[in-house]
Prior knowledge:
The chain has helices at residues 2-8, 10-38, 44-62, 65-96, 100-105, 118-152, 166-196, 200-218, 222-231. The chain is mainly α.
Amino acid sequence: MILFDFTDYPHLLDVFCFLLSSMLFLGYLAFIKIMVARNPAYTVQGITTLARTAWVRNVMEEGKDILAVQTLRNSTMAATFLASTAILLTVGVLTLTGQGEKMRLTWQALNFMGSTHQSMLAVKLIILLLDLFAAFFFFSSSVRLYNHVGYMINAPYNKREKVMSPGIVAATLNRAGHHYSLGMRGFYSMVPLVFWIFGPIMLLLMTIVMLLILFRLDRTPKALEEDYHAHCEVGHCDIK
């Protein structure tokens, strides 16, 4: 009966698969957040957050200004490059909006169950654009925060004068890293959205495949996690 309804109203299958795909992706993000709260070393992001915090403290206490500038420059260049890439991909998607008829005849040739109506294709492209715009926003925000950190980390911090504490600088730097990570999530989620053009079943399958790949990328190697717990001092293991 459900299959019959989807056959009569193919756009319902598109909506169902998109909602299920979104729930899977958001559920994965919530799962990662919960696991990191319990164990900071569970993901690579948690490890790098701890590393950035220690790095800021070391730079400010030892006065390693050149090291700070070079490292922040590399991070800024990476975020700038990815923000530019997001804009270029956005222009490419906008170009596709004017070729709807060609896409309907070629790209949707494998779409056996989903809707092939012109309006549904427009919805797919709009959602893809929103995803790219979100990625651009997060990468741009990351660049802005890295620039702020460049000034904050070089503020006087010695026995005579302490303008900016390492904790505040580390929090800003970790926020920049978090926005960078969210931008990358936007790029990863773009893959299932592109396959959605070929049909809703492809969207669902690629979402599952991408989540498996993401988990593999996010999960901290076992040896590194064990090393962290072996050398972690009580009271200094939490991400602040």
